[in-house]
Amino acid sequence: MELGEQRTRLLDSNDHDIMELGEQRTRLLDSNDHDIMELGEQGTRLLNGHDRLDFADIEQNLDHNPLSNGKGTLRIGWLKRNWRDSYWRDLVAVAVLVGIICGALGYTLGFWAKRSPGRALRPDIAPLRILVAGDSISQGCESMHTWRYRLWEWFQANNVPVTFVGPFHQTRLQPQDLSTGVPLPAARHGDELDGPTAMDNGYAFDIEPEFLRTGSAHFSIWGREIAQDVDIINQQIHDYRPDYLLVELGFNDLAWASREPDEALLLMEQFIDKARATSPELRFAVANVPQRSKVGDLDIRTGQYNEKLREAIPKWSLPSSPVELVEFMEAYSCGQTNCPAALDGIHPNSRGEFEIAHAFSKTLYHNFGIGQQPLALPAKFPSRTCLTPATVAIYPSQERIRFTWDFVYGAYGYEVQVQQEGVEWVIDSANFTQERHLDTLWTTKGTAWEFRVRSYCESTIKSAWTRAVSTTMP
């Protein structure tokens, strides 16, 4: 067969095949010991018995081949002629299979990594065990969501299985002021819900029921100091076996125990050492202390403690048991003259709950690789409803006049006004109490007095006043 000036000859025999294509000559010699393939001036040798493939610099000399396109493309004739060889067919099949497996594996790993760089929601991964050790800021107030709930929501949104552990489940409930004769409302029967209700444990009514089962546990107590937990944290670690210890302590040591920053820092170091002694691979996320509305020189000592804590944490950290800082103060919108994140100048309101959870989520994400991103603060923080006491009553006697009112779930306290009948109310003057009664001992016989009350849910959220009721001292 002749094509122009190019001549192609194919000779078949038991010993060898020879194919010539114009000035380009290809010879394939088959034998028991070796195969030789030559392409033009470029020699390629395949020695089957010695596991060696020599492939010379083909790309550098392809321009000398008139049948190449000058761009490094070899003719596929050799591949076609050798496709009959099962060795090459098997090699190609294996290469394709390996490619498919690697592609599937890469897609799977990328999929789970995208869902969560930490622990994705997979049935074969045990939930993270989180222990929150804190004070009133972490325990929370009755009817609040708490920052613990907002952090639990973040775990759910990031598909990270989690169980919060600890000996307590409640927020701080209102004291049961039984002296009024008006009992607290009865909790709903246990058969109405599978487990405790939000009111039973003191949370907001709209929390997820699953939180009460897997997210409400904690080790946070109103007024708690580091000094009070140093000698008992090891028992908590032993009993609840957390993977992570989230620490929000130190405010009460500085504010009410009047400890110096160095003393509080030493207590924190001892606290970490004793927790780690029980669980050598325990991971720590330790919050600094927030500022609050003006109280003496607390702001100065708080700043000093936070600086020392930042310097100390890298020294406390170990490869097997890392300690990371949570920038609580920096995230919390609270200072000496303005504190929109708190309901009373320190304890978090709805905004503050999100800000604290945001601070912890940043550390868990950036330092421990948990979740897809830190908790995002909402454009508008949820508001609270503060109800007015439904019923008021007066009980006069010769010694005093007792004014009582109904319990309001979620009220942080109550503001009461008392005045002589017929006088204008002084709007900004009120008696604050966390009880549900007020006794007046200064009234005189024959004088008529009026009383009214409203619920205090936080500094900027209060209910309407009740109707005024009056009585005359007998």
Automatic annotation (TrEMBL):
SUPFAM superfamilies: SGNH hydrolase (SSF52266). The keyword Cell division does not apply. InterPro entries: Ester_Hydrolysis_Enzymes (IPR051532), SGNH_hydro (IPR013830), SGNH_hydro_sf (IPR036514). The chain crosses the membrane at residues 91-113. GO terms for molecular function: phosphatidylcholine lysophospholipase activity. Keywords: Hydrolase, Membrane, Transmembrane, Transmembrane helix. Residues 234-352 form the SGNH hydrolase-type esterase domain. This is SGNH hydrolase. It comes from Hyaloscypha bicolor E.
